[in-house]
């Protein structure tokens, strides 16, 4: 693992990499006179990641572990209420600190819990999945799902630091690694053609230097978020693949006869569909589109859509948070490495994209 990765300065907090992060964490605990320390984990990170974290923390503070069941299905307000109650029972106050140790569900929900408890207490994100490292832990979006509608309830609020330690990835199943890869591919497609091209032949990708790829992905996301913290403008670029991807993810989550998709699996489909739409709107060449479709399909299994699936998926687009004035706004790619936001797309073209995806 490369240890020399530079610390990335986000708008008001640092993002540390590997061992340097634990030194910074301990220095932070010493400087800030916290009353107590809570570590939020889910059932997976309690078992696989907490044993790595605890020996790294040097503090006299009382450390309380709060665990909830893992899975997107628990990313809801009921879980938050349970955690707020536990914090209250354990004597948390305005000077308590929460460390969120986990994937996107833990960092999204934990950030929301901390941001709203007593009108906001400090929190630190230690992402343990590839997806959370390159996406959920950066940018200050915290929140929970409302039924099957993703991230409908939430706040923008920043952690006091983020600590990315790639050794946690050793405990991650292959499908979860792939899920995170989807967001890295997206960062290349919307912002950095050279970065995208590093993923074109995954057979020869040097995983010993995977840390450098993670670092670049975090840097891209941070650069975009710093320009537009509350998503009024360029931050919408990060929604590429997500307008249709989120609708697909929600539909598969609520359908009895469908296997639930991981976030990255749904986003991979969304990126192919939205690349097709970009092609039809003459923003991409046929060669570029084929390159994107081939590269993504080489990593991700095909998802099958029945004709009856499409109407409910289109229906879910209406609830997308990116909509304004009742119109559905897409972020489309304008060549590889550039983006066009606020693009309107008619339903016929979306259905055509699904047809092409399945061909």
TrEMBL record:
User: What residues does the 3-dehydroquinate synthase N-terminal domain cover?
Assistant: 66-178
Pfam families the record matches: DHQ_synthase, DHQS_C
Give the InterPro entries listed for this entry: Dehydroquinate_synthase, DHQ_synth_AroB, DHQ_synth_fam, DHQS/DOIS_N, DHQS_C
The prosthetic group or cofactor this protein requires is:
NAD(+); Zn(2+); Co(2+)
Name a GO CC annotation attached to this entry. Answer: cytoplasm
Molecular-function GO term, any one: 3-dehydroquinate synthase activity
UniProt EC number? 4.2.3.4
Superkingdom classification of source:
Bacteria
- Keyword Zinc assigned to the entry: answer is yes
Q: What class of enzyme is it?
A: lyase
Segments forming domain 3-dehydroquinate synthase C-terminal: 180-323
What keywords tag this UniProt record? Cobalt, Lyase, Metal-binding, NAD, Nucleotide-binding, Zinc
The answer to whether UniProt assigns keyword Oxidoreductase to this entry is no
Mention one GO biological process in which this protein takes part, according to its record: aromatic amino acid family biosynthetic process
Its function, per the record, reads: Catalyzes the conversion of 3-deoxy-D-arabino-heptulosonate 7-phosphate (DAHP) to dehydroquinate (DHQ).
Q: What is this protein called?
A: 3-dehydroquinate synthase
State the species of origin.
Flavobacterium crassostreae
């Amino acid at each position: 693992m490369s240890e020399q990765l530079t610390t990335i300065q986000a708008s008001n907090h640092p993002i540390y990499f590997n061992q340097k992060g634990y030194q910074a964490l301990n220095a932070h605990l010493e400087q800030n006179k916290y009353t107590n320390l809570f570590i939020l984990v889910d059932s997976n990170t309690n078992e696989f990641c907490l044993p790595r974290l605890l020996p790294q923390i040097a503090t006299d503070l009382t450390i309380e572990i709060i665990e909830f069941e893992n899975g997107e299905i628990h990313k809801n307000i009921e879980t938050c209420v349970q955690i707020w109650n536990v914090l209250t029972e354990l004597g948390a106050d305005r000077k308590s600190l929460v460390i969120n140790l986990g994937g996107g569900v833990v960092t999204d929900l934990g950030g929301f819990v901390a941001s709203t408890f007593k009108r906001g207490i400090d929190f630190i994100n230690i992402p343990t999945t590839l997806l959370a490292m390159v996406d959920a832990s950066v940018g200050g979006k915290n929140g929970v799902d409302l039924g099957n509608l993703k991230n409908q309830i939430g706040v923008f609020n920043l952690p006091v630091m983020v600590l990315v330690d790639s050794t946690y990835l050793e405990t991650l199943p292959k499908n979860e690694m792939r899920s995170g890869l989807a967001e890295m591919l997206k960062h290349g497609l919307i912002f950095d053609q050279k970065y995208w091209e590093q993923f074109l032949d995954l057979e020869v990708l040097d995983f010993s230097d995977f840390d450098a790829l993670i670092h670049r992905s975090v840097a891209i996301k941070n650069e975009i978020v710093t320009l537009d913290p509350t998503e009024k403008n360029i931050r919408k670029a990060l929604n590429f693949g997500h307008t249709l991807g989120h609708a697909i993810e929600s539909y598969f989550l609520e359908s009895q006869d469908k296997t639930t998709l991981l976030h990255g699996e749904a986003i991979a489909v969304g990126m192919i569909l939205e690349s097709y739409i970009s092609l039809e709107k003459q923003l991409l060449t046929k060669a570029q589109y084929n390159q994107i479709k081939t590269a993504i399909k080489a990593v991700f299994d095909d998802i099958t859509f029945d004709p009856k699936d499409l109407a409910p998926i289109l229906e879910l687009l209406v609830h997308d948070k990116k909509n304004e004035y009742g119109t559905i706004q897409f972020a489309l790619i304008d060549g590889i490495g550039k983006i066009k936001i606020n693009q309107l797309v008619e339903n016929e073209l979306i259905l055509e994209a699904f047809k092409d995806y399945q061909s």
